[in-house]
């Protein structure tokens, strides 16, 4: 951030009075520009013993498989955002959705809210951000070609739960350390 | 938003190619400025049969009672943000936290993530944003002086759960319609 989005003057980074973190501050109009984490809302679409994955048509991780998910928009609920992403990326109509987990990715300031639900009619087709969509049994999941650690983590928890016959709501942290080491914490 | 925070040129609102919602776009440097919901992280601090509330020292709703909660910061996890807010607003040290619910407030583009947990040592004192802090039994909760509908909703669900002896993870929508009517949806 270089300029104030309100008045166009140059901003500087400084801790405002009464605050304890540096913010982008405009000394011309007084605006403080906060930057906050973003929510990614996604789905585990279920059909019989299979779940739906999308192969990404866009960067990052083009060509790799993911659960349908994307940035939540203003004015939405998390579950509406998750259902919208499943529709946009896979032509999927989600039914009977329930919260499956929230996953914190503090190194990129994102929080994933994941819902599971039935894939209406078992029907799906690739949207503009997907090369293909496919229903996978647990045995057929392309574990080595998953797009993101949060997708692997969600799928591992999901199949563990399914084997035990109880779906809990999970909280997890997925942390990429500066040395690139990945740390997974489950609560 | 009036000016591009990257290059300082005037922005306009327009649907970018491949998108389906209007965004603030800079035709000078090409930046697209997305605006997304914010996460508010909060706690239900428990001590024996009582829970901790804070009386707000700041607007909005100065003088009204709330659960400790505030905007999540970049680089945090949701549970760390909730614990930090409890410490800042009430000097509280939270222990054994678990996810209690996520509540969507689409009319103001906020998502509350609420955690319950033990108030360490039963100790609390008002931080700079609180006039006072106090432990309340269910019978003593100041229901008519609660700051926000999401606080009421969280407390109602919490005491229902406690009476039944089972704490579930809740998902709820708290919607203020244009005619000011409040709608609560529970999932």
Layout of SSEs?
Two copies of one chain form a homodimer.
Chain A: E1 12-14, E2 23-25, E3 32-33, E4 38-47, E5 50-56, E6 65-66, E7 69-71, H1 78-90, E8 94-105, E9 110-119, E10 130-136, H2 149-164, E11 170-176, E12 182-186
Parallel strand pairs in A: 4-9, 8-11
Antiparallel strand pairs in A: 1-2, 2-3, 4-5, 4-7, 5-6, 5-10, 8-9, 11-12
Question: For the residues shown, what is the average pLDDT of chain A?
Answer: 97
N-end to C-end Cα span of chain A: 35 Å
- Low-pLDDT parts of chain A are none
Can you count the beta strands of chain A? 12
The largest interface is:
A-B, 44 and 44 residues
CATH class category label of the largest domain in chain A:
Alpha Beta
CATH superfamily of the largest domain in chain A: Nucleoside Triphosphate Pyrophosphohydrolase
Main β-sheet description of chain A: 9 strands, mixed
CATH topology-level fold name of the largest domain in chain A: Nucleoside Triphosphate Pyrophosphohydrolase
Strand content of chain A: 35-45%
Instruction: List the secondary-structure elements of chain A in sequence, H or E.
Output: EEEEEEEHEEEHEE
Task: Explain what the structure shows.
The structure is a homodimer of 187-residue chains. Chain A is an alpha+beta fold and 187 residues long. Chain A has two domains: 1-35, Single Sheet (Ubiquitin Ligase Nedd4, Chain: W); 38-186, Nucleoside Triphosphate Pyrophosphohydrolase (Alpha-Beta Complex), CATH 3.90.79. Helices cover 16% and strands 38% of the residues of chain A. Chain A contains two helices and twelve strands, in the order E-E-E-E-E-E-E-H-E-E-E-H-E-E. In chain A, the strands form two sheets. In chain A, strands 4, 5, 6, 7, 8, 9, 10, 11 and 12 form a nine-stranded mixed β-sheet that branches. Chain A is elongated and about 60 Å long. The interface between A and B is large, with 44 and 44 residues. Chains A, B: It comes from Thioalbus denitrificans. Chains A, B: Belongs to the Nudix hydrolase family. Chains A, B: This is ADP-ribose pyrophosphatase YjhB (NUDIX family).
């Amino acid at each position: 951030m270089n300029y104030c989005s309100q008045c166009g003057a140059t901003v500087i980074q400084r801790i405002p009075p009464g605050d304890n973190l540096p913010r982008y501050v405009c000394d011309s109009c007084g605006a403080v520009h906060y930057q906050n984490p973003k929510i990614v809302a996604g789905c585990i679409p279920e059909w019989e013993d299979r779940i739906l994955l999308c192969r990404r048509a866009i960067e990052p991780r083009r060509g790799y498989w993911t659960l349908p998910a994307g940035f939540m928009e203003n004015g939405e609920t998390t579950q509406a955002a998750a259902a919208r992403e499943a529709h946009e990326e896979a032509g999927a109509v989600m039914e009977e959705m329930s919260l499956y987990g929230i996953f914190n990715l503090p190194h990129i300031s994102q929080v994933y809210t994941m819902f599971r639900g039935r894939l209406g009619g078992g029907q799906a087709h690739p949207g503009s951000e997907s090369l293909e969509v496919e229903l996978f049994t647990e045995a057929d999941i392309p574990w080595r070609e998953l797009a993101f650690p949060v997708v692997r983590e969600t799928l591992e928890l999901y199949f563990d739960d399914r084997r035990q016959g109880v779906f809990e709501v999970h909280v997890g942290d997925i942390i990429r350390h500066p040395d690139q080491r990945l740390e997974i914490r489950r609560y």
